[in-house]
Amino acid sequence: MGTRPWVAALFLLPALVLLGALVVYPIGYTTWRSLYDAGGARFVGLENYGSVFSDDSTFTALKNTAIWVAVAPALATGLGLIFAVLTERVSWGTAFKLIVFMPMVISMLAAGIIFRLVYDADPSRGVANAVIVGVHDTFAASSAYPGAKPRPGGDITATSGGSYTTKSTAQPGTPVALPLIGIPAAKLPAGTQDAKTASGSGLTGTVWLDFAPGGGGKPGVVDQGEEALKGVEVQAVKGGKVVATAKSAADGTFSLPASAAGAQLRLPSSNFAQPYSGVDWLGPSLVTPAIIGSYIWMWAGFAMVLIAAGLAGVPRELMEAARVDGANEWQVFRKVTVPLLAPVLIVVLVTLMINVMKVFDLVYIIAPQPSQPAANVLALQLYVSSFGGGNNQGLGSAIGVILLLLVIPVMAFNIRRLRRERRR
């Protein structure tokens, strides 16, 4: 344009100073610091880089970062593509876009706190486990008295599978006593009646809570004030086979057919199993997929908005021509829409790949302390090594340099792609 070089340099100087202070100098200092020990006084060369690949926690962080890069951007981009295509086909597409994009306005810190509660192991607080437990309990009956067990030293002994079986055999005319303990009286179902001793000439018995309020009473005997256990399944077993079953009534009594004479009575484990409490989302085996799920919840809206903008520029004539030629909707989507959106999809994918390499907040907040080593990523390991108790800024600087080296190929690919598109 004929402008003098020194004038252009003068206008560029403020930006160059900021770029040097905020980008160039930190990169250079971090690279130099990675060659020294924890205190920064002794030159160790590439020793810190060797520690990155030999230390178990750092190697786990490197492996988890690779999982993040391979899974999270692809899933977020795929969901964004599906949302963008579907919102064009519904009248309330704008409202749907607003709802899906809304998590983007939430900070990583706030999102981490939200999903720490969502993944809480207690179904009464964690939404994820509340849904799973609700579905499970719809199709599977819960146990009648979780945690109940026979009194030690009695006629009932523990058998395989968590069940309890009598040592003696049942005989007609002799009521069988099946006393249980281990259940707080306050947790018995509402309307529980007092237990009664079974009577009659048949094969009968009583299942009850062998605990009298205020103490006292005789073990193994139905005392006044002791409460019945209603709905307990009792099995008559002969030769390892169940020949008859019965359930205790409201007063705890039960009756078996005469064919069960001489059988041992078994209380199956289904009577005492602990209630289903859901999935351990934040345990070592599932913590990384759980955190990736929270990341996708936040960033799928970002992908959807960019892809929807690209979709708005796709020529509708091509889609209509494909339909006229006999293509169904799936073929139009796969062979027309996706190829035309390829540049936008690459932009979104590359942006998210760079973003997940720096993920720190979600892992630090969502993963509880016992599971944090299993969910570790490079950005978190950098912080832990340098400031979170490790106090080894040499190792932390080496991790920072490795993160930079991992990002450079993705950035170089993005720059080359932008230059190719500019030439077109």
Care to describe what's here?
With 424 residues, the protein is of the alpha+beta class. It folds into 2 domains: 32-125 and 281-423, MetI-like (MetI-like fold, Orthogonal Bundle), CATH 1.10.3720; 149-271, no CATH class. It has helices spanning 5-33, 47-54, 56-87, 93-101, 108-118, 127-139, 287-312, 316-324, 329-340, 342-357, 361-366, 372-375, 378-386, 393-423; strands at 149-150, 156-158, 164-166, 176-181, 203-209, 233-238, 241-247, 253-256, 264-267. The strands form 2 sheets. The chain has a 5-stranded antiparallel β-sheet with strand order 2-3-9-6-7, with no helix packed on it. A 4-stranded mixed β-sheet has the order 1-4-5-8, with no helix packed on it. Strand 2 (156-158) and strand 3 (164-166) form a beta hairpin. The protein starts with a helix and ends with a helix. The model has no long low-confidence stretch (mean pLDDT 87).
Helix content bin: 40-55%
Strand order of the largest sheet: 2-3-9-6-7
Q: What's the number of helices?
A: 14
What is the CATH T-level topology of the largest domain? MetI-like fold
CATH architecture of the largest domain: Orthogonal Bundle
The name of the CATH superfamily of the largest domain reads MetI-like
Decide which structural class fits the backbone: alpha+beta
